[in-house]
Structures are given as C-alpha cells and as structure tokens.
Q: What sequence folds into this?
C-alpha cells in the first residue's frame, strides 16, 4: 500500500512553494492530488518520488580557461559602446497637496460657520 502525504510533506520533499505545486498541477506537470475528504487532499508518495526522480539534473561544467601568452598583456573585458545617446529623463510630476478638493470646501464651510 502506498503512503499518502499532505501538502507540507510535498513541499518539503520537492523544494517547491505551494503556489508552484498548484501551478504545475494545473499545467499537468505534477501529479494531481487525491481527494481524501471534503476538505482534505493528499498525494501518493510514489507519485511525488517518481516526479522528483524524473526531473533533469542540471550540470555545471567549468569552462576551460583561455591560455594567456606571456608576451601578450591580459585584455580586460570592456563594455560595448552605446550606439545611441541616452535620452534625458522626463521631469518628475509635481506632488499634489495632501488635502483633496473636498477638504478645501470643508475648510471654507468651517471658517464661515465659526465667523
């Protein structure tokens, strides 16, 4: 019999976030859950393990270093020149007053009421 694991265990075993698991389920790239009751779901442990083992391994191979000739100086990498000039930035918009128009009208009514 296969064990059923809940979402917390799925997240711990896969290293994915909750959102990522559901996104992959929706894209049919992760095994769908099994409904355990009205408000509970789980995944078959064998499905999660099979998915994890089917993932490709990323390899990071070191590149062979370029040989530098002793009579040639080492060339420093330079940025390519810009083909176009930078455009000046647009002026920033002015900040509005913190009081809205409705407050301005309210202030006028208050000052006339106290007079």
A:
């Amino acid at each position: 019999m296969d064990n059923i694991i809940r979402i917390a265990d799925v997240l711990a075993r896969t290293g994915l976030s909750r959102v990522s698991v559901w996104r992959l389920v929706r894209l049919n790239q992760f095994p769908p859950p099994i409904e355990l009751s009205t408000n509970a779901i789980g995944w078959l442990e064998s499905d999660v393990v099979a998915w994890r083992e089917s993932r490709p391994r990323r390899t990071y191979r070191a590149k062979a270093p370029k040989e530098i000739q002793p009579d040639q100086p080492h060339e420093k990498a330079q940025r390519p020149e810009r083909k176009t000039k930078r455009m000046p930035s647009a002026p920033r918009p002015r900040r509005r007053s913190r009081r809205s128009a409705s407050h301005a009208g309210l202030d006028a009514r208050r000052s006339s009421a106290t007079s």
